[in-house]
Design goal:
The protein is α+β, with helices and mostly antiparallel strands. It contains 13 helices and 16 strands. The longest helix is centred in the first third of the chain and has 39 residues, at 27-65.
Length: 421
């Protein structure tokens, strides 16, 4: 969430940034400033009253020592009234603190200055393109290829669970596992430490990284235990550092993890959800960084270059988009989306979002570091490296050969154990 002091100091800049997002509840900016002023005033009164009470306690002690019990008892009555006043002020302070946080939870991050205003994905800015993105009309869609070669059974997944939960079989399962291991190996070679986090998180973790309350309706909820299935391993990985104070020497913190991901994808329908295009359960390998704010944008550039390398190793045509204000995520200051070209569908499929959240998540997480004797807020970043379903879809569609087979790129063959399907 945003920092109130930063909102006060840069109010016009904050409003300008929120307008880029088409954020309509700009009245929340004045509301949070006003409530915070009440909070500060209450804190001032409470501090003064506590100081008075401490002074009074010492006076009472001295009077009893001097044998002046009657005078001491008069002051004790005053002290009792002050304790009641203190409790009232503490309750009021807690109320204002909660109100400030409740308002801040509703305000998205301020976009980076490079983010353009826009209404939707149509206004995103293409910043890089690699490979052949011409349609291949003789190539068949991945769902037909997968059915023909018994790689993925979508109908069986519907029988077991429902739509959006495919079953991978034989070489389909082996290819999926090979891609996961390939991504993890490349990530660890780049200095990311592999972790295996929980795949279910508590409410505090959801709030920490911004999935709650923004995406509550998109998460699977385990009612009896008040837990959530993770939509991405970014959530548990980043929350490893909730309520942590780092030293300057701890930077950079680089982590990677494989996990299944669960998303309700409410409102999704039609051709865009066919096959592997949009699933409720899918696998993803994530990279997460916790950075000194001075280095976070250099780190973002490194992450973008890293994901580029993965896609080039897989010999897939791709492009990079800098998301506009109308399409950027609630928590992000700057996001680059990677899309691979789907040759049989003649469309672009998103396979990675690489984002810098600046202090937005870290402020929620109370994730700080020591700087010149003071606690400062860290920057957090994350990216998919990579999301499996659409990579698999583009893989099966782009690497089809004249004989109807799919060629395995050379750098992946040691992981699959076969050269073609």
């Amino acid at each position: 969430m945003l920092v109130v002091s930063a909102i006060k100091e840069n109010k016009e800049k904050v409003i300008e940034g929120l307008k880029k997002r088409n954020f309509n509840d700009l009245h929340l900016i004045d509301e949070v400033i006003n409530v915070d002023e009440l909070r500060r005033k209450t804190q001032f009164e409470l501090d003064n009253l506590l100081a008075e009470s401490n002074k009074l306690s010492k006076e009472i002690g001295e009077l009893f020592k001097q044998g002046k019990a009657e005078e001491a008892n008069v002051l004790k009555e005053k002290s009792t009234k002050q304790k009641a006043q203190t409790k009232e002020l503490q309750d009021l302070l807690s109320k204002y603190e909660n109100q400030v946080n409740e308002i801040l939870y509703l305000i998205p991050n301020i976009p980076h200055e490079s983010v353009v205003a826009g209404k939707s994905a149509d206004d995103n800015v293409e910043v890089f393109k690699h490979g052949d993105d011409s349609p291949k009309p003789n190539n068949i869609p991945h769902w037909d290829f997968a059915k023909k070669h018994n790689l993925i059974d979508f109908e069986l997944g519907v029988k077991i669970t429902g739509a959006g939960f495919p079953v991978y079989i034989g070489k389909g399962a082996r290819l999926q596992r090979a891609l996961i291991q390939f991504f993890l190996d490349r990530n660890t070679e780049a200095g990311y430490t592999e972790v295996i986090p929980p795949f279910v998180v508590n409410e505090a973790s959801g709030f920490g990284t911004g999935q709650l309350p923004d995406k509550e309706g998109q998460m699977y909820y385990v009612n009896q235990d008040n837990l959530y299935l993770i939509p991405t391993s970014e959530v548990p990985i980043t929350n490893m550092y909730r309520d942590v104070i780092l030293e300057h020497s701890d930077f950079p913190i680089k982590m990677t993890a494989y996990s299944p991901c669960f998303r309700r994808e409410a409102g999704s329908y039609g051709k865009d959800v066919r096959g592997l295009n949009r699933l409720h359960q899918f696998e993803k390998v994530e990279i997460v960084r916790i950075e000194n704010p001075e280095n976070s944008y250099a780190a973002l550039d490194e992450m973008v270059e890293h994901v580029k390398g993965l896609l080039e190793d897989l010999e897939l045509p791709y492009r990079i988009l800098r998301l506009c204000g109308g399409d950027i995520g609630f928590t992000s200051a700057l996001t680059y989306d990677f899309e691979v070209y789907s040759a049989a569908q003649d469309k672009w499929l998103e396979v990675s979002s690489v984002s810098n959240f600046e202090t937005f998540q870290a402020n929620r997480l109370k994730l700080r570091y020591k700087k010149d004797g003071k606690n400062e807020i860290c920057h957090t970043l994350n990216g998919s490296a990579l999301a499996l379903p659409r990579v698999m879809a583009a893989f099966l569609e782009n690497h089809q050969q004249e004989d109807g087979s799919v060629r395995i790129p050379e750098k992946l063959r040691s992981y699959t154990g076969f050269d073609s399907i």
